[in-house]
Amino acid sequence: MKFRPLHDRVVIRRAEGDIKSKGGIIIPDNAKEKPQQGEVIAVGPGARDENGALVPLDVKAGDLILFGKWSGTEVKIDGEDLLIMKEADIMGVIDKSEAATEKTVAAKKAA
């Protein structure tokens, strides 16, 4: 991808939503809710403080994050649907090792 966000903006690829409900019902694309987590694809250099010094961002490319339901602007870059938002719209970073163990536990419960 040849896109570099400016200032404190972040480019995010939204995580894939569940296709089935907990009860096993298949949910069509137009009815399912968009997930509120995603992977950081690119980050800007950072914001400027009152003195003009550059303040780097806390997130980096590859981080798995949580964001608000109505956060960001949806864009299409290289045929891929992405979100661009400010770092302030990000609620937190998910630890990937914990996320992997939670998926494993959920899969075992479902089986």
From TrEMBL:
Compartments in which it is found: Cytoplasm
- CDD domains from the xrefs? cpn10
In terms of domain of life, where is this protein from?
A: Bacteria
InterPro entries the record matches? Chaperonin_GroES, Chaperonin_GroES_sf, Chaprnonin_Cpn10_CS, GroES-like_sf
What is the predominant subcellular site recorded for this chain? Answer: cytoplasm
Query: From the Swiss-Prot or TrEMBL record, what is one GO molecular function term?
Result: protein-folding chaperone binding
Keywords attached to this Swiss-Prot or TrEMBL record, sorted alphabetically, are: Chaperone, Cytoplasm
Name a Pfam family for this protein. Cpn10
Q: Which GO terms describe its cellular component?
A: cytoplasm
Database matches in SMART domains: Cpn10
Question: Belongs to which family?
Answer: Belongs to the GroES chaperonin family.
Q: What does this protein do?
A: Together with the chaperonin GroEL, plays an essential role in assisting protein folding. The GroEL-GroES system forms a nano-cage that allows encapsulation of the non-native substrate proteins and provides a physical environment optimized to promote and accelerate protein folding. GroES binds to the apical surface of the GroEL ring, thereby capping the opening of the GroEL channel.
**Quaternary state and interactors:** Heptamer of 7 subunits arranged in a ring. Interacts with the chaperonin GroEL.
Protein name per Swiss-Prot or TrEMBL: Co-chaperonin GroES
Per the UniProt record, the source organism is Mesorhizobium huakuii
What's the encoding gene here?
groES
